[in-house]
Amino acid sequence: MVFRMSATRRQVLARTGALGAGIAFTGTVSELYAGTAAAHAPHHAGYGPLVPDPDGLLDLPEGFRYRVLSREGDQLLSGEGAVPSNHDGMAAFRACRGRSGVQLVRNHENRPNAAYRVPAVDGLTYDPMGMGGCTVLEVGGDGEPKSERVGIAGTAVNCAGGPSLWDTWLTCEETEDKAGTNGYTKDHGFIFEVDPADPHASGAVPLTAMGRFQHEAVAFDPANGVVYETEDAFEHPFGLFYRFLPEKPKGGPGSLRAGGELQAMRVPDVPDLSVVEEIGATFDDVEWIEVPDPLAAGTPIRHQDFGRPMTHAQKLEGCYWGGRSVYFVSSYARSDQGSGGDHFGQVWRYTPRTNELKLVIRFGPDHGVDTPGEYPDNIALSPSGGLFLCEDGGGEQFVYGVSRRGEVFPVARNRQNTGSAEEPAYGEFAGVTFSPSGRTMYVNCYAPGTTFAITGRWR
């Protein structure tokens, strides 16, 4: 094993004044911009303080505006039923040829107790007892919703996912419940493909070769079509980081059904990523081990015998491709829950060309974080060069921006209290994504499920 320490070590502490929220981390934030449009992003940070929203929905900086595009419990424009609950991961695609605007494919992380299920639609329903799935919301060039329909139904706990190389959405089930559990008639824990242009073309077919586990997010290597996958397992041993080698790389819609090989990452002598604390720690002896049973017919993958110790991590969540590397997030680690160390967030970079894994950012708790609530989850790069992350913790919830200097600043705050005056609870943000032009940010509030379009002076 070769283990190196970066000579560069930066500590950043950012606070939002009267808002009382803070994030602190160490690391070289410019790592996250390498090889992307954001490489030329401005170094200065922030859009000013957040202005309280008189309607009590979303606080934004002065000069920014939001529009509520969709809200759970309202009727889908298609008439198929109610807008489902628990809005989560999302991506924006160009509208169909001949129309302006975008199509948003939106996950619904519905469990059996969800208030509003994804309506079952013939040809788009995997398991009639599954409450989750995706909806497709088309927004016109004038910013108005034009259509809203079911993209896939009958799945469960659709958390995140990611766009493919051919403009479809891969939606991930964050569960490994089998048929007979929670009334399900089929096994769950799969990835499904959704074509925003024609959901019936993609149907409701599980991509079984990509594994059955508690999926979170995916990212594609544009050079060869390899798909990287994160696992957000809820209990020890925690999740693994995977890659899928497709039989038909970059093959187009439906090609992933042809199968491929699923592998899990192993870093020798590092059983748990949470024990790594030094920013710039680099491991250039990464191994990829074939998964013995991708369908997890008898044993969950993370419990399977790989013939050698594997490398696990708690709360593996966001995942995206930038430049020549894949970046993935461990949202937090708690030693009292079984992790080897404690942190409030890590961002890792794996570079296939050099086979190197590097810790590029680490959040608290030993770097001055005010509260244990600031856990990074989704991470997104805007086409115009901004880095944004969604918070998934306790108390008030924010979307944050990060400048190339490492300054953290608030972009939006969820004002919707789903608890009580005595014990407020604010739904997390999820699915932050931008229109191809970079002029509009789209983001979800998980509960009550709400999709916002935010416009303003984006840089």
From TrEMBL:
Signal peptide: none annotated. It comes from the Bacteria. InterPro entries: PhoX, TAT_signal. Pfam families: PhoX. This is PhoX family protein. The lineage of its organism: Bacteria, Bacillati, Actinomycetota, Actinomycetes, Kitasatosporales.
